[in-house]
Design a protein that fits this description.
There is one protein chain. Helix 3 runs antiparallel to helix 4, helix 8 runs parallel beside helix 10 (257-274) and helix 11 packs parallel to helix 14 (379-399). Helix 15 (429-435) links the parallel strand 7 and strand 8. The chain has 706 residues and is of the alpha/beta class. Helix content is 32%, strand content 17%. It has 18 helices and 32 strands. Residues 1-15, 17-22 and 399-413 have low confidence and may be disordered. It has two domains: 24-395, Glycosyltransferase, CATH 1.50.10.10; 564-706, Pectate Lyase C-like, CATH 2.160.20. The protein has an eleven-stranded parallel β-sheet, with helices on one face. It is elongated and about 95 Å long.
Length: 706
């Protein structure tokens, strides 16, 4: 080790221990942000988290960096994302191998850090992260198990299931299954939760013991039940968090999911019973709550508060438990949180570590749990505090969501501001939408500041006269990543944005489906009518835009639309003006399903058709339904457009009914003499039918004046 590196390492450790801190934290920021910033001050290099003097692939890093990404997702501070990426880049090689990780150790703790890699891969698309995720997932294929299918906690702890291990393995397992279309894995994921409950449940108090040895040979194991002696607070905290995090990805119809909810409800019931009445906190050893020598411990308290908040929000448990969570959160602030003169936040009273067995034998007695060191700023308290704070902050935003006055006069306008950094009234678009009154007769503008908004956004049918305006077309991004092969979702539920309301406008923003090319994945799904999109980008692969309602009218002006197969499809009447239509592979641009009695389906006017490098065989369209109507007027077509232009979808009868036409196309993709015989080249007289007034046959003149 060089002198320079030793000096840098020493300085980093001093910073991480709090002995050197020159930076300040703004006391006006939310607690989640303040704690994350404080950790970055204490540990300027993300590998230094958890007081580490050297590189380690550890569950604590994954836990804390996951919470940082949660803060980033909420408040859009890029430093948090970069901080997490720096650890991933430090630890993961280009081939996906991971520093200090050995699959053959079969340590389930090492799987947990795979969770924060999902989001890093989503945003960077760096294949080394995907390879690392796949490597961690491969461990579960050969990880040792008991005869009933329960994962061992580690290879060196044969036949043992720990509640800690359920958190370390199953949320990652569930998210991987969700993202990679592996519904066959859900039964095994559910099994882990149910087996842990079966083997650790204590009928005398309704709690769950720290661990079990099903072979009943370990010294700490009860010779009859195999259970450890006590219910350790953090073990049950891990277990509770595992439920609320894994349930995000387990389909509602999955057998055994209802049993998981029964167990989660029991956890909520039992921890409510033993919550300290004075402080709202929980003890290190739960089954000895209030006993001499026991102490109120911060990691289990933050874990329980986070789990309760999230379980109430997702309606897994009764809303009455919200009072328990709020009391616990306020107890954390009053008893564990310290702020120094520079605003740097610390959390105290965390058990450093506790386990069972091992070389320096841990007996699992009451005295043992009380003997372990207690320290400040342990990641196992820091990260759940951040996650609980985010839930609390979200609750505050929903508690007072509306910024509109009940006395507003008709036709009055309102502007709502959405900003990831907290500088607006709302931090998510969905929250702004929920604040808008139904069936308004005045216009509301939702101004969205630059940022990446990962939301599955629905504009409900009872909203109208709403304009969504982005700060900049390429930096105001609404994104999600559902695809048709996730849990048999099917095409029509994969949308990122679904517009059910009428008279809705989007301007100057991006709507994206960021799913890998694993099947249909819709960015925009429209059901309403009189919808307008100006200077918007629509990014996706197969089925980017679904115009889903017969008889509806849509206007796209100066937009960019990309995709692979049938990426503009559906039955609506839609006019595309001066849009760029970009094909990402050899396939089909449109798949209209225009009803027979509707004259105009898709009309492309003065558009430009482009393609990715190597793409050279693209059809203008094929009929999803027999009477598909699509025309291209005065459009510039790249050489990627096939000479025949149109396809019958393998059904010759479609040639008799499909209504496909062009007028004055230009560019290398223009080839009127070689187009299929059943398409038309329009005359000047026929072109008159394609004025905006004829396309949108309504008296309201809802579209801009032409």
């Amino acid at each position: 080790m060089t002198k320079l590196f030793r000096k840098a390492l020493w300085m980093g450790l001093l910073l991480c221990s709090g002995q050197l801190m020159a930076q300040k934290v703004n006391n006006n920021l939310p607690w989640s942000v303040r704690m994350a910033e404080s950790e970055m001050i204490r540990c300027p290099e993300s590998w230094q988290l958890d007081f580490q003097p050297k590189l380690k692939w550890d569950y604590c890093h994954g836990l804390e960096l996951q919470s940082f990404l949660d803060v980033y997702d909420t408040y859009n501070d890029r430093r948090l994302f970069d901080y997490a990426v720096s650890y991933a880049d430090t630890m993961i090689h280009e081939d996906g191998s991971i520093v200090a990780y050995k699959l053959q150790d079969y340590n389930i703790d090492r799987v947990n850090s795979g969770k924060f890699l999902f989001r890093i891969y989503d945003q960077t698309k760096n294949e080394k992260y995907k390879k690392a995720i796949d490597l961690l997932r491969s461990q579960l294929d050969t990880h040792p198990r008991n005869e009933d299918g329960g994962f061992w906690h580690k290879k060196v702890y044969p036949h043992q299931m720990w509640l800690d291990g359920i958190y370390m393995g199953t949320p990652f397992y569930a998210e991987y299954a969700h993202r990679n279309n592996r519904p066959q894995d859900y039964a095994d994921i559910v099994r882990q939760f149910l087996l842990a409950a079966k083997h650790t449940y204590d009928p005398s108090n309704g709690l769950y013991r720290h661990a079990t040895d099903v072979s009943r040979t370990e010294k700490w194991a009860n010779p009859v039940t195999g259970q450890s002696a006590h219910s350790w607070g953090r073990a049950m905290g891990w277990y509770a968090m595992a439920f609320v995090d894994a349930l995000d990805f387990i389909p509602k119809h999955e057998p055994g999911r209802d049993s998981m909810l029964v167990i989660l409800n029991n956890i909520a019931k039992q921890i409510t019973k033993i919550q300290d009445k004075k402080t709202g906190l929980w003890y290190q050893v739960l089954d000895k709550s209030g006993d001499k020598g026991n102490y109120l411990e911060s990691s289990c308290s933050t874990m329980f508060v986070y789990a309760l908040f999230k379980a109430v929000r997702n309606e897994y448990i009764d809303k009455s438990y919200l009072d328990v969570a709020i009391k616990g959160y306020k107890g954390i602030l009053d008893n564990f949180i310290k702020v120094d003169k520079d605003g740097v936040v610390s959390i105290s009273q965390a058990c450093a570590v506790a386990g069972l067995g091992g070389k320096n034998y841990r007996s699992g007695t009451y005295e043992y749990y009380l003997s372990e060191p207690i320290r400040d700023n342990d990641p196992k308290a820091v990260a759940p505090f951040i996650m609980a704070s985010l839930e609390w902050e979200r609750l505050q935003r929903f508690k007072y969501p509306s910024v509109m006055s009940a006395t507003k006069e008709p036709h009055q306008q309102d502007t709502l501001v959405v900003a990831r950094d907290g500088s607006g009234q709302f931090r998510s678009i969905g929250e702004a939408v929920e604040s808008i009154r139904a069936f308004m007769d005045y216009k509301v503008t939702v101004y969205i500041k630059d940022g990446i908004y990962k939301e599955k956004l629905i504009i409900p049918s009872w909203l109208k006269n709403v304009v969504f305006v982005g700060q900049s077309e390429d930096k105001t991004i609404i994104t999600h990543d559902d695809h048709a092969n996730i849990n048999k979702m099917g095409t029509f539920r994969t949308y990122t944005v679904k517009v059910e309301g009428n008279d809705i406008t989007f301007k100057n923003l991006t709507i994206e489906n960021n799913a890998a090319q694993l099947g249909q994945a819709v960015a925009l799904h429209t059901e309403g009518t009189r919808l307008m999109f100006f200077k918007c980008r629509f990014l996706g692969n197969q089925d980017t835009i679904f115009t889903g309602s017969e008889g509806s009218y849509l206007l796209f002006t100066d937009c960019y639309i990309e995709g692979t197969t049938d990426f503009i499809f559906g039955p609506s009447t839609a006019l595309f003006e001066r849009c760029t239509i970009h094909s990402k592979k050899n396939s089909y641009i449109t798949a209209a399903s225009t009803p027979q009695n509707v004259e105009h389906g898709y009309v492309f006017k003065n558009c430009k058709l482009t393609a990715a490098p190597g793409v050279d065989k693209v059809y203008l369209g094929r009929p999803w339904r027999p009477y598909a109507a699509t025309v291209f007027l005065n459009c510039e077509m790249g050489k990627h457009i096939r000479p025949e232009g149109w396809h019958n979808w393998g059904k010759p009868d479609n040639e008799k009914t499909a209504r496909y036409a062009e007028f004055m196309s230009r560019g290398e993709g223009t080839n009127p003499t070689n187009r299929v015989s059943w398409s038309k080249q329009l005359t000047n007289k026929e072109m008159n039918r394609y004025s905006i007034q004829n396309i949108f046959k309504e008296d309201s003149n809802w579209y801009p004046y032409r």
